[in-house]
Automatic annotation (TrEMBL):
It comes from marine sediment metagenome. Its main location: membrane. This is P-type ATPase A domain-containing protein. Residues 88-182 form the P-type ATPase A domain. Gene3D superfamilies: Calcium-transporting ATPase, cytoplasmic domain N, Calcium-transporting ATPase, cytoplasmic transduction domain A, HAD superfamily/HAD-like. It is found in: Endomembrane system.
Amino acid sequence: EIIEIPLGFEVEIIEIPLDIEASVQPRSATEILARGQEQDDVILNRIGTRGLLKKDLAVMFIKQTLEATAKAKITRSITESIGPTISNATIIKDGMKKDVPVEEVNKGDYVVVQEGNKIPVDGPIVEGYSNIDESMITGESGYTIKKTGDYVYSGSMVLDGRILIEAKGVGKDSLLSKITKIITNAQMSNSPIRRISDRIAGLMVPAVIIAASLVFAFWYLKGENNEAIMNSIAVLVVACPCAFGIATPLAVCVGIGRGLKENVFFRDGAVFEKLPRTSTVAFDKTGTLTYGKLYPVSLAFDENKVKNREEFLSILASIELCSNHPLSKSITEMVQNEGIQIDSALS
């Protein structure tokens, strides 16, 4: 069964801009017909121009839609790579603890972060010390001991203890927000290949106009006014360099999105042009080429005092289960992998 689709159906969504454009013209084809003026070439010119405008606007609409979709996917990838966002923070107000949305934390506020929680702001530690996981900022999977006076960053994890931070970088001023902004802006940067494609498109436009003018002149001199208009418009439509404007930015967007899935952040779209010519790459080892996770490979204990190995490991893991320290987690994971039951030390 053949389903007939009305002409222009695919661009009905942009009828309003076209109608506005047409309404500001001094004389329309309808007015010409109403006055009894037999100017078929003018009428066809307006119909052809309207069709051309529809086509161009449709391509622009598709381009913007594809770019917006790709950028939205990249933003989601960035969010997934960074992990769950920090929504609340505990501040000290008039000597009392108060939970507030992180957006309401101001510079100079004192923020309390407990063991196992993420740091919501940038700032120095004014009280306490802790092992901090800064892998979100530094890329290093190991932990760093931070004490009073040391600077910590939002997105880092407090592995043990309790710290009090003076808020210095909040919201958009935090280092994590700036990193996210750099990654997001990378998809909109003009790489050299994109500038080259823009220049090619810029050269094609006058060439296409000249070709359309020659086609128009050829048919016009033959006395075929209608053919002159329609064929010249056909040249403009077919030779429109729209693909140059769509393909390059989309390729950059897709490349950045694919990199994020592999935990590779690109600061600039120009990187993709340099990669094929790259002969040597230097990698940071820990946390990049290796997992950077601590894992016990063997256990040594006094067999005269430990009669039952499984019972000993079960008790050890139940104690370590109460801690967020990386060493504790690695011991617990090892015992679980051996299939030994772990009972809570609190029960």
